[in-house]
Design a protein that fits this description.
mainly alpha, 91 residues, Putative addiction module antidote protein
């Protein structure tokens, strides 16, 4: 009998705003590309449609901005962070 596996998706395990906050805090220690990838994961966990609505952007533009290789503007990143229930801080 063959063993069936599936890809691990962190988004399936981010269930609360606190989970998302901790996840993004850890991701902020990495590269900008890693942080954008983490924003994508967190947005998928909350629901892209809901995040796009809260951020005031279209769902399609949110997908494009947060896709691998995407180069979102700072205003977009800031809006997404706020939509996820987080705040941007410099320490």
């Amino acid at each position: 009998m063959a063993l069936k596996t599936k890809l691990f998706d962190v988004a399936e395990h981010l269930e609360t705003e606190e989970d998302i906050k901790i996840f993004l805090q850890d991701a902020a220690k990495g590269t900008p590309e890693e942080f954008i990838h983490a924003l994508n994961t967190a947005a998928r966990a909350m629901g892209m449609t809901e995040v796009a609505k809260k951020a005031g952007v279209t769902r399609a533009s949110l997908y494009k901005s947060l896709a691998d290789g995407g180069k979102p503007q700072f205003t977009t990143v800031s809006k997404v962070i706020k939509a996820l229930g987080c705040k941007l801080a410099v320490a």
